[in-house]
Structure formats: C-alpha cells, structure tokens
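INTERNAL AUDIT FORM
Audit reference: QA-55
Scope: verify that the stored structure record matches its stored sequence.
Auditor: D.O.
Record contents follow.
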Amino acid sequence: MGSSSSSSSIDHLCINTIRTLAMDAVQKANSGHPGTPMALAPVGYTLWNQFLRYHPEHPDWPNRDRFVLSVGHASMLLYSLLHLAGVIEIDADGKPTGKPAVSLDDIKNFRQLDSKTPGHPEYRMTTGVETTTGPLGQGCANSVGMAMAERWLGERFNRPNANLFDYSVYVLCGDGDMMEGVSGEAASIAGHLKLANLCWIYDNNTITIEGHTELAFNEDVQARFKGYGWNTLHVTDANDATALAKALNTFKHTTDVPTLIVVDSVIGYGAPHKHNTAAAHGEPLGVEEIKLTKQFYGWDENASFLVPEEARHHLRDVLIERNSDEHDTWKKTLAALEHSDPKLADELRRMRAGEMPDQWQDKLEHFEADAKGQATRASGGKVLNAFAAKIPWLIGGSADLSPSTKTNLTFDGAGSYSAENYSGRNLHFGIREHAMGSIANGLALSYIRPYTSTFLVFSDYMKPPIRLASIMELPVVFVFTHDSIGVGEDGPTHQPIEQLTQLRATPGLLTLRPGDANETTQAWKIALAQTHRPSCIVLSRQPMPTLDRSVYASAEGTAKGAYVLADAEKGQPRVILIATGSEVGMTVAAFERLKAEGVAARVVSMPSWELFEDQDQAYRDSVFPPGVSARVVVEQAGPVGWDRYVGNTGAKIVMNTFGASAPIEKLQAKFGFTVENIVKVAKKQLL
C-alpha cells in the first residue's frame, strides 16, 4: 500500500485517497504540484486523525487548533483533508450553509475560475483555510501571530478550570519556507516568546524547482532552530505514523518552547521516478505515470477521483468523536462567562464579529490651533492611546522604533507582551519588519485588532504582508512615520520617495496621509472603523501647524479622502492647490499669500486617494471642478499617479529624484517645497 505497517488499513486507505486525489486534480487541471501532497499525505492525515482539535461542523470554533499549510503550492493536501473531514461551509456571516467546504466537484475543479480550490489556499474563499499562503515563509510567520494571539486571549478570557483559549498552531512548511528570511525572523521571535503552543513540521524533501537543495542550501536546520530556542525532533520517514505520532505527542507535552519536527520525505512518493521532475516542478505526473503510481498504492489504476466508501467518512467521524465533548464543554464555559461576566463575554462576541466597543468614537482627541504645531507622529501617538484605552483588543508595536514612531501604549495596564506577560498590549517585534507585518496578519486572523509601526521607507521590507493583508481583507493598521525628505540629515537611504506610490497602487489598501493633528485623529478613526480593509497611516517626523478649523474646513472632510480646506470667494477658484501630509501647512500659507495678492485659489487637502475615489462623481467634481485646469500638487514624494488629479497641464511640486543628507530647511529649499515656490508655480499656471 506504500505506507508503514504501523498504520491500520483504513489509515492506508485514507492516506492513499489523499495522494490519488492530488494526482488526479493536478492532472485534470494540467497545472499544479502533486509531489508534496503525495509525500506529506501521511503527515497531514496523522495530525488530523490523531491530534487536531477541530470540529467539522463548527470550523469557526474559536478554540480549534489552527492548521496552516505554509507550503501553499501543496494546496491539494489541504483540500483533500477538508473533503475527507467533511468540513461544513460557513458563509460570510458565520452561518453554516449545509454544503461541504470542499466537495468532490470542487476538487475536480481545482485551479479553475471561481472555484473554491484555487492554486494556493485563499482565506475567505474556502472554509477551513486559516490564512492565504503562497509566498513562501508567510504561513510560518502568520502562525506566530496566531500563537501569540492564543496566549493573549487565554490571559484575558480564561478562568481557573474554565479555559476558553488553549489551542495549538500547527504548520506544514518546506525547504522554501526555511530559506526565506521571513521564517527566520518569525522563528526567532517565537523562540524568544517561548510559544510552546506552536509546532512547525518541516518537510525535508531536499528538492526545489532548480533541483536538489544542495545547490544552495546545506545548513543544519535543527541546529539553527535550537539556537532560536526551539525544541527540535527528527522523524526519518514521513510514512512512519508511529514516529510521527510520538513526535506530535512530545510537542503536546512541551510547555516551555516551540517545537520543530523535521520530517524526511520523498517528493512524489510512490511515483516511478522517486525525485520526479514533474512532481517537484509543479507539473502533472502524466497519465502513464499516474497509473504506475496507483499500482504502487494498490489502487484502481483506471479510476479517477476515487474516494472509497470506507474512507469517505472515517476522518470526519474520528474528528467529531474526539472533539464533540470538548466543543460542548467550550460552549458551556462561554455560557458560564456570559452569566458571570457579561461585559467580558460581550467583548469576545464583538471581537469575533469584528465589531468595536460602544462609544469607542465618543470624545475624539481634538487639537487646538497652533502655528508651531506638532509632528503627526506625536499627535498620532496621543490619538492611538486614546482609542486603545477604549478598545481592549487593539494591540501592537513597532520594529524597535516606538520611541520614534510614538506608538507605545502608555496608559496604566497596557504593559509589554513577553514570555513572562502574555497579557501585555505593547508588542516588541525587534528589528524584523517583514515578520512584524506577517505576525500582525496572524493576529488579525485571531480576532485581535493589531497595528504595526516603522519608518515609511521600510515599508519596502513589508510589501508581502501588506499585500496579503489586502488580499485577505484584514483590517490591520500599518503606521509609517518619517514620511518624507523631512527626515533630514539621515539622508536618501531613509527618505521615502516611491513608497507612497507603491502603497497607493495596492488594491484594497487604504492609505492615509493626514495634514495636521486633527486630520490624524480622523485618519485613526477611519482606519479602526474598517472591517475588511487594511490601512496605512503615514505620519511626519517634523512638526506642522495645527490648522484653525474655525477659519478652515473641518478635518472631518478626511473621511471623503479629499476636501476643500480653503477656498476662493464664492467658491470660484482660478487655481487649485492640492497637498497631503506635511505639505498641507505650507500650501495653506501659499494660499494666504495668493489671496492677499488677489489671486482666487483653492486648497484641497487630500489625505486618501482611495477614499476620494469611493465618492460619487458629483462630489469629486465639486472638489475638482472640471472647468478649472490650473492645478498644482505639492507632495514630498514621487510623481506617479498625480496626473489623474492635475491633468496634463497641471504642475507637480514633487520628488523626481532621491533626497539628500541635510537639515530639513535646506532640503525643502533645494527641492522646491517652500511657500515662495508654491506661489510662483501657481501663478505660472494662470499664464
């Protein structure tokens, strides 16, 4: 049968069902990776069959174990497991539809348009998929966020002899995950935090797309993870269910550190060519090779998508039998909490539903007019603390920069999250931007509202998790400070230019660059109100004036993305000045000078392109009247995209090069970000 004799015949049957479904689905799609699902079928099956706390009829049970397939190209392994487990689909409102999460027809539709079985698993698309994986290493880092969340949730909601949260997080990962830097960052912080609820199972098959891993990878992975502070185990045969079970039991009884289980496997196990090229490179095995492989498994070589009757319900029945009592106990524990502490129980209900506490928007931070003003990183820190004091599950931190980004939570009881205090709300990610973003996604997948922070230029290190947050529709808040050449003497390596363009180009991402302290309040309010959309709040290092809102328009206009901040008499401007962030103050000063000279101008503050594009045409035309072609944009960032708002004839006072190392005043003069230059360019538009 191609499996160890330590497994029963029904286990053999289920394992080979998983293998043959993977082969057949990839063959029918003429696309995909059959080799890893074939090799890891015994590993995935043993985990689900003997250990996973998971109820197929309640796949959203908050205390379920999380199963993350970081090797997302092996998606057919997960789809086959979900199918054999009989997992029931739940809709976007969390209600069961009565349909299977993954039917046999769905498997036959692998990698096809609008199917529930895309090439890589996608969160929200397929019930039972805990996170979107594909870019290698991401699932590993997400899992650290999930494990951190369990510890935090347990501290907040568990009571003596009444646990609502004590789940484990299991990850299947491979050589590619181990090579990607993000997994190293994530493993390092997991070891530091002693996340004993976290188990990575490393498929050591020594094959990548280019060939044998010896081409580029020969390190001692176990030694590396021991250095990170993990317990490491080694199973020398992926088909040895007894050894796998022993290793997983060791994990379950390890209470002080995370666990890495190295499992040696043969990719495309059972295929005539053991290191089968097609299996490794994401190609179908081919009809003849599939027949030979099925013969090796003792399978009907002429059957496709065969699920033997004995295997059809076995895994489902085992999961229900093992987990029903635990699920019932969990419901009773929740009911007891609802009786004894209804406020705390309501908190958990809101977290699961993606809701906020009542009155979270009451008494918003307000800043009085101040010509000197303050940096929006400073006002942003005050606003964050005010909101966090009202939202207990808003937690986050920075990549070692909270003194600079001002994102530390300073109120009583906030505390620092650590191996000694999992209830802390200040997260210390260390200098690990990539893992920080991915961990935040894992937290967001676990009912918590996370925020992260670093300098805007280092958003480059966070592109993958920001993109995946958008794909998964996770309301993570990414705070980026030091947003322009205003960084000054640190020079061009630290002065962002193209980063705003990159963020604005990301579908589904909300980018907010507020122009003063009160716009910053509104930006945080907008970001925290999101339920299916990540946000970037982009803040300044340098002070900027806090505008007098009795003279200029209310900062509530931020909610529309762009609004008329200051206007010509009777609302009939000859020239429109557009600005974002730290350039708003100088643009308002230029407006006042033009006004004094009798030039009818309008200032549009534009903190968010995306919110503005969400408005109807009538509103957009009211802000940018089509008949007014004289326009100037002022932004200390790259020019790409601004033609949409200034047209072909408008002027752009922007950055067309990298910056330089110098005091901010010298830089602004050099690159044209002065009141005098804005006035000059505006007048030129009127010629």
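Auditor finding: record pair retrieved intact. The two ends are 84 Å apart (CA to CA).
Action required: none
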